[in-house]
Every structure is written in structure tokens, then in C-alpha cells.
Amino acid sequence: MIDPAAPRPEGQLMTPVRGDSAAAATQNHPRSLDSALHRYGTSTPKSVAGMVLDQAGRPSQQITYGKLLSRSNKVAFMLLNKTISAGKDNTKVQMCKPGDRVALIYPNTEPLAFLSAFYGCILAGVVPVPVEVPLTKRDAGIQQLGFLLGSCGVKVALTSETCYKGLPKSTASSSQFPRAAPSGSSSLTGTSQELVDLKSWPRLYWVITEHLGKPTRDWTAPPRVADESIAYIEYACDREGAVKGVCISRQAMLAHCRAITSAMEYKQGETMVCVLDFKREVGLWHSVLAAVFNGMRVVFVPYSLMKINPASWMLMATKLQASVALVKSRDLHWGLLATRDHKDVNLASLRSLLVADGANPWSLSSCDQFAATFAAHGLRSEAMCPCSGSSETGTISLRNGSSGRGILSMAALSHSVVRVDKENSLTSLTLQDAGQVIPGGSVVVVKQTGPVRLCRADELGEICLCANSTGHAYWGLEGVSTATFKAEPLGADNRPLGPRRYVRSGLIGFMGPDGLVFVVGRRTAQLSVSGRHHSADDIIATVLAVEPMRFVYRGRIAVFSVSVLRDERIVIVAEQKPGASEEDAFTWMSRVLQAVDAIHQVGIYCLALVPSNQLPKTPLGGIHVSETRQRFEAGELHPSTLLMCPHSCVINLPKPREVQSDIGPASMLLGNLVQGVRIAGAQGRSLGSEDEMNLLEILRSRASSSPDHRLFTLVTSKSPEQDTATCASLLKRAERIGAFLVERGRLNAGDHVALIFPPGIDFIAAFYGCLVAGVVPVCIRAPSAATLQTTLPSVRMIVDVSKAVAIVSNSGVCKLLKSKEAAHRVDSKAWPMILDIEDSPASWKRKAPSEPSEPLPSDACYLDFSVSTTGQLVGVIVSVGSLLYPSRHVALCLDPYCGLGFALWCLSSVYSGHHSILIPPAEVEACPALWLTTVSLLKARDTFTTYGVLGLCIQELASQVPTLKEKGVNLSCVRTCVVVAEERPRANLVNAFSRLFAPLGLSGRAVSTSFGCRVNAAICMQGASGPDPSSVYVDARALRNDRVTLVGKGAPHSLLLMESGKLLPGVKVVIANPETRGQCADSHLGEIWVASPHNAIGYFTVYGEETSIHTDHFSARLAFGDTMTKFARTGYLGFLRQTQSITEDGELHDAVFVVGALEETLMLRGMRYHPVDIESTVSRCVRFSAVFTWSHLIVVVAECTGAEVDALDLVPAVTSSVLEEHYLIVGVVVVVDPNTIPLNSRGEKQRHLLRENFLHDQLDPIYVAYNM
């Protein structure tokens, strides 16, 4: 993305800038660090090498050069001569050989022990790897340090006694770890059972370096020359938080000391005060290497003391007349605040105040204020010494004499161009120089991206150094090392400058006049957004400028970028001070957004505030940015306040699809025929002649021919035969209820009667009782006493809409309807007559009811009411003719109130005479194994169930499969297990169920799905003799444009779809365009239309008449082609695909693929999205969610299963995942408690009802995030 208006660099191509020539090694300077230690340890053994301050700010411990040499020799002797037991036979082996890597793990309060251990390793020729002390298992970055030690092959760790005691440990049995290699053993005898327990760390021998034995008299450390062998490994972190080990050779270590000594003019006996981390970078280079190289005295000030007494280093510099102090700009800032100690400070002795982060532009204000304030206390202005460098290059520059500064345009810098700006401009950045190139060094600036080309004089790039003092490789990373340590900058002719290789520093800057180095930021903190570069430090400074002290802590802000939708997005995380209200916080956050937009012209993707002390910190107190980013991306940040702004900062969305001008159905059909595309139409085999008997006649016929044949068995968790019914007993119960309805209820033929029963045989008997009495049953799910508030209004609505004149039920439900609890929710006086079937006298069983007139095939047989997924109450009139359709042999675990579930539960057994095993789903909730054990016990070949039951079995029985197998549960008898549904098949759930229970003998081809809907309860179902159910992968992007494109498994944007079984006999299906009513081709997505003798005959409306919309649903005709056939519109989108499988008739099998409900699709940006696809994406962040639209905004309702503190972590996760996969910006994220999203009886989400609850503020959410 290139901005044509962006400034371009215009200067000359730069040439290398060289530092002063390295001073020749004079007689005064030692040949190596080993010889330096020997020189000062023997010639001036009483001179103090180092001292450390205690928590009171007083020198508590000190070490002389004589002691340092002695202790270092002890460490070297122990490393090279200690033997340990190894292997199964406990053979003695040498602990370390020269060249082995050894970890140095010392806290910031123990620099003297570190000095002894470090120089002990140098004398022994082993390679020290200094790392941070892991105080807890959750310390930021500790895992990465473990990876570094593992990759370096570290087996031994040197530490102090107090540090070792503080390490997190666990105990382990001797069988778990071999005696020879106890990870936590300090004695190295193998007897300790205490193990240092750190994730991803290698098993180490821990050696405490205090109180070591003296070397034998004749032992001396072998002499080491300053050669190319590795002296030590310094760790460096990259942008992603990965820790790499920079290898520094003995020659480079010596050259670095000489260059620093030359630039800083260090002399023997001078005093240095060090506030920095002595384990790496500037602290290590000056206070450990250069100080010993020159025989200086170093005063170490621990970070813990600085937090208590920030002026302690100044007081010590005053007291000891220190000539050098090593600090960070933070220490200067803290020193300015410690005003009560200023009167005792005199910094006249300071020749050099080295500012380690002086290269950071935002250190300038601290440096200027400190210099101005302490000029009155003897500080010379030329003593301020900013520097630059990195672990890879060592020191790049140090200020020595002349200095410079510039006021630059941040807008130009974001385009990598240097342009001078006006002073005091809001969009300017004032820089101070980082000094001159170190002696013996040569610096070039190369482009940040692409080939390593030289920059122009006014162009921003990465600073590279060529010197003898640089590192030469990352340990064990050859490829990455070449790119960093062997850069060959290309000149104007695209040829390398010369034979010398440069090392990339990771610092972004440019060369100013007089050979001064200017640094504007670090590569790890660069945010590359839409082709422009912004420094995280610059954005932090802008954030702090917005009333910072009221809301956030100054040093506790992390700015980083995350990759979302092919670009980097900026995230700001800050620690919020306690006591700030949410309203004030949002006001402050909106001001921050405006400030960043005005000053940097860049949008913020996410701004999060976390409670104080929640961000991961580095050992010396800074914010660990990469760990913060990892927590943000993993959803583990736990913010207290959050503001997402995807609408304002995501500007690279694909263009919305333009809807083409109307093309008529005839033109589409003709075009498809010309292209040779198959037209989408299919039908099942012919049905054969229909039986003239109705269901009641069939039941009577069976009762007379085989009265004792069992039709139904009700199975519950309490009893395998809770209730049974034979042909004769069912007819007897039905006739008793029929007589009861006519005589007690005074009901007339054709009246509507509400049947409100729990699943069971009473329900079936009541249905046939209604047929005996000639009334029309309305089957309604019984309300639950536990959830009366939500279930009772639905019951009341169906009773009212169906115009039922009576309610028939058992005594339990009747009492519930008449109870006080029910009266609180609905008007109990407005119920129609309530009839309890248990009230009917036994004498009525023998009384023959008067026969109603013979029903016509078109008469209403029953009313099928259900709540659709959009929350709409739908009642369908099912005619007598619809029911006389042969069903198959089944065992059932589904709800019996509507659709195919009702037909299977109540009708199919009577029609076909088989034995139905009835298992109410509520019983499976109480006893999850009930369904599978019943099927196994009765060796049922066919079973029907729902997705809810499948999900429950997976959730509850996953760990019990071996136990079930031991108990003899065997599912090899199952020929077909059909999931009854009115939605897209949940392929992943079906596959997971098949795989999980395969060890119990369940065949992979047995589990399949059916498809039915309001207009036709059974359109497709997998038969025992049909081909195996097929699955296809389609392109999700093409599907949004109503096109079907098959792709391979694992292809980008692939979506798995499973067919819904084969078409039932007598069913004809076409795919039609819902707008034009033209017939679609196989390659198009369209509405599934069905023609069948068992279609429903119409919707039952409140007024008892069919509106024009409803008529259209049941008697639709194609606009072109087969215009004579009358179809029912299912309201579901899908497509047909002719497979290569052969049906039992010898024909190629036509597979029906259901994609989703038409009324639920979301038309966004000119494309059609299905909520289930967006929810599938969201399911990777949160277990259960639902999607709908509101005022053209996408609303995602996500159920938070964790603690409430986790709720806000879901907002960026949901927003980013939907943006990445669907190119859609989520407008609102609503985080709710589990089980808030309403489901219908089939386990399908009721998104319309959820939307109504959201609009009427009835969700009681944990958090609502409105994305800006």
C-alpha cells in the first residue's frame, strides 16, 4: 500500500561513517580479560573490585581484586575437576569440559557472586550464559529462557544459596528421576529429591558457588588467548518474545573492552556506580567487562533499593567521588522526584553520566531536566553521555564531546524520511544524538525491508556496525545468524561495499552531521501499519500526554501490533489506577484515540485497561511487551475496561459485492443449459399404491388380529419397562379417553384439543383417543416446574393460537397448570376446560363411544406446532393423507411434540406394527448412558435421535467408553442411527460421535441425518439399503455469492457439508431461486422446494384462514420449466449434487445438501452469510455463541464459561476471528452467562428470540462491547 502523497528521500546515498581509529594496545592494557584479572588480583589485591548496597543504601558486601581472583579460580577448578555420577551404572564423568555452556542464575542483589562465577567460567574456558532468575513458574519470558538453555545444551547452572532457596521446586520419587541426575540437587551427590520445577527448562545440575574448596596447590587455570572461541553468550529477545543466544568471542570481548576504554577514557582505580542490569548489554559491558579490564571499583545499586530510595545512587556517587555512573532515563526521572535528598548530592566528580537508553527519543526530557536541575549540584552538561547499542552489535556509539539534536516531523518519519519540523509542533519529535561511532567501528544505515541496500542521507533505516567487538552468531541458528551477522550492504551499483560484513543492530535511525548517530526507535518496537512505520515509544508518549497521572501508571504501558486481516493493528494496554470509574476511563480512552489519530494519523484497533500490577514485568521492572502480546492473543490478559475500534482502523476490507441487474429465470435456465450444467432437480422412487385405511382403522385391525403384540415400551433411568402398550391395550386406552372427551368434555367433532403430556405412552393413547372422538389434537410440550417462567408462556401461546377448547393431560400437569406458581405467570382463569385423563371412571372403558363420521383424506388430522429457530410460532395442519405414508422400524430418543419426531413416536409403530422403544431425552440427561445401553440391550437395528442427545453423549461419556465396553455395551447391531433435524447437518458433531463410539462396534456409515421442515416433516432420510452418506468441501467465499464450488479437504476457506440422507419415496425436490422462482443449476445455491403426497396442507393462523403469504408456501410453482407441479417452499437454502454412488434402483444417487434457513441468512456487504458459519469461527474463542444483525451491525452473543474476569478477553478474540475469516466487522459483542442463549426442543438456537431479548434489555449481560 503506497501513498502517492508520501514524502520521498532526496539526499545522496550514504557512505560508511567510521569511528576514531582504535588505539593501539599499549603496554598498560592487558592482553586479555584473564590476564587483566591476574594483573589486578596479584599487583593490587587489596583494591576493591566491587561493592553492593543493602536495602538501607549502605555498602553491605565488597570484594577485592585478590578475592575475586581467588574465588574465580575456585569456580574454575570446580567446573573442570568436579566429577558426577551419570548413566544407569553411575559411572563418574567430568562435570564440565572447556567449551561447555553453563547457566549463570544470580539475582540483581548479588552482583559480587555473579562476578566470581562469570570470571570463573572465563578462566576455565567454559561459556557462561547469564539469564534472569525465575522466581515463580509464571514469570514473564521464563519459558523462553528455558528454551535458550536447552538449545545451548546447558547441563550445569551456577547460582547462590539464597537464590537457589527461592526457586520454585517440587519433590519427586526416586523412580521418576534417575539418582544420577537430580534436576534440583545442590550437592550433586544424587541424594536430593527436591527438583527445580520450571516449565520448558532442561534438567540442570545446580551448583552453589559459595564456600567452594580451594584448588590443589599444583593447579593453575590453563592460559587462554583472545581467539575466536566463544567467551560468553548474551541473551537477546526478538519481537515475538523468542530468546536467542548471541555468541561473543574472546577476541570480540577484548576488542569491545578496548573500544569502550578508549571512548570513555576509563582508568585504573576510578569509581563507577552501576544502576543497570549487570547480566547483559550496557551493564555487563561496562560494570563487569570494562571495569575489570581497567581495574576499576564498581558500586552496584540493586533495583529493589532504587524502588525504595531512588536517590541512593547519587548519594553514593557523591560519597565515593565516582567519576562514572551507569543509569537509565527512568533512574534520572526517579532521581528528580526524590527532592528531599537533593541537598546532600554533589555530582561534580562525575566525568561521565552514561544513559543506557539515551538512544530512546523519549529519554531526552529526563536527560534535559536532570542536567538542568543538578547543574546547581556540580553536574557538568558535557557529562551527559547517551549511547546506543544492542546485544548483537555491542556498543555502537558513545557521546564524547560534541552533541546535537534535531526536531523532526513524525509524519515524515512514518514514511522512513527525515524532515525538519517546527519547534513545539504537536506532530514533531525532538531527538538527541547517541554519540559518535565507537573507535575501530564503521556504521552504515540500510533499508528496513527488502534487500540490504544503503539508505540515502535523509532516509530512516536500520543501523549496522562493522567492528571487531560485535557478536558473530546466534547459538544454533545458522540461517537467522547469516541474515543478522553477515549483512552485505549494497551500494548504488547493487554491489556489496567490500569484503567486510556488517551486523544488524535492530535500531532504527540515521546518521547526522559530524558523524553523530541518531536513533528513533527499535525494530522490535516498530509498528508497520498500512505501509507506514510508527514507533511504539512515540505512541506511549502520546498516551502519557493525555492526563496520564489520573488514570494510568507512567511506566506501565505496552504498545504492540497484532496481525489481523493482512495488516498490523495497534493495541494499547495500560495499567489502570484503582478508584477510576468506568465512565471516566472511557472518556480518557476516547481522548487517547483522538490524540493518536491527530498526532500519528493512525487508528487504534484495541485500547485495554487492566487492574494495577496485572501486566507481566521484566525482572528490572519494565513491562514485558511480548508476553503482554501473547496474553492478549491467547485471551489471558483479563482487562477491566476495553474499547475496540475496528470500524475506524480497518480500511482494507474487500469491496462490497454489487448485486447484478435482474436476470430473468428463463435467461438463467437457458444459460445453464447452454453451458451444459445439470439443472438441480431430483426425486425419490415411486411410492406405489396408497393404503385406503386410516390410522384408527389400522389400530383396530391390529388389536383384533394380534392383540398381545407389543407396540411401545417406555424406558426411563429408573426402569427398563416403565410403561408398555400392546395393540389391544393401546386401543382400549384410546377408546376410554375418546369416550371421556365426548361425554365429560362435551366436545364436538373437529374441535381442537390441546394434549399437554410429558413424553410417554399416555401421550400416544391421548392422541388416538382424539382420533376416536373425532377431535383435532394439538400436541404441546409439558411445562417444567423448574423453568415455569420460560416454558409456561409458550404453552399458553400455543393454546391460544390453536383455539383449543379443552386441555387434556395427566394429574401432575393439571395440578401444575392450576397452581399458584402458574397463576403468577399467566391468568389461570383464562385456561380452557382442563380434563385429567386419570379422572375417567373405569366403567367408561366398556362404554362404546359414538362413531364419528369417516374422515376425508384432506381433513385436518392434528395440528403440528413448533417454535422455529427465528422464534416464530408455526402451526401446520397435517392432513389424514399425510400420515398414511409408510414409516420404518425405529427405536427413539427424541421429543415427540412436532415434525418427524411426533410421526415416529406416535404414528409409525401403529402403521407398520413394529415395536418402538421410547426414551425421553430428559431421561438421557439424568442418565447419559441410557440410550446407548438400551439400544445395545435390545439389539435395536434402527434408532432415531437429536443433536442434543449426541452432544450430551460426547460430553458425558467420552471418558467412560472403556467402562461401557467392559459392561458389554455393543453397538454393532445398529444399522441406522438417524439424527432428526431441521438444519444444516452438524458434520463435525456426527463425525466426533462416530469416532468416539467406534470402539463399541458403532459402524462409521450407520450415523446419518434426516431433513424435514414445517411444510414436510420428512424429505430426506438415510435408508439401510441406500449408499453411504457423502460429504463435500465447498468454498465458503463462493457460497456467500450463492455459488457452489467444490474444493479439496484442507483448502483455504473450505467448508465441510454433509448430505441429509436420500430422498424418501414419492418426494420430488427442486432447487429454486427464492426471488425469481427460476430453477437453479447444480452449481448454484437456492431454496429447496418439495412436492410430495405427505406435504402439510397449510399454516394454521390465528384467524383460521390462510393468508396469501402462507398459500405461497404450500402451492408454489416454478416460473419457468416444470410450471405444472405444485411445490411447498421449505424456507431452507441448499443444493443438489449427483454422486457416483448407485441407489438400490440402479440409478446415480442425488445427494441433498442443506446449507441453512433462508430467513436466518444475513445479507451483509452484498453477500449472504449464514449465522452458523460465523458461530463456527467464534467457537474457537468461546464454546457457545449466537449471531444476528441489528441496524446493519453484526451482534455476537457469547456465553462465558469461565470467571467473569475472563469476559472481556472474548471481545478482541471474537472481533479478530470474524474479521480474519469472514471480512466482517462485528458491531456489538455481548458476553453473557452460560445457558442464556435460548434453544428450541430440537436444540436449535432461537436467534430471533435472543435478538428480541437483546433489544428489550432482557439478557442481563456480563459485558456489552460496542465496537467503534
TrEMBL record:
Boundaries of every AMP-dependent synthetase/ligase domain copy: 59-475, 702-1100
Residue span, AMP-binding enzyme C-terminal domain: 1159-1259
Cross-referenced InterPro entries: AMP-bd_C, AMP-bd_C_sf, AMP-dep_synth/lig_dom, ANL_N_sf, Dip2-like_dom
Highest taxon of source: Eukaryota
Region (Disordered): 1-20, 168-190
Pfam families registered for this protein in UniProt: AMP-binding, AMP-dom_DIP2-like
Skewed-composition ranges (Polar residues): 170-190
Family: Belongs to the DIP2 family.
Record-given protein name: AMP-binding domain-containing protein
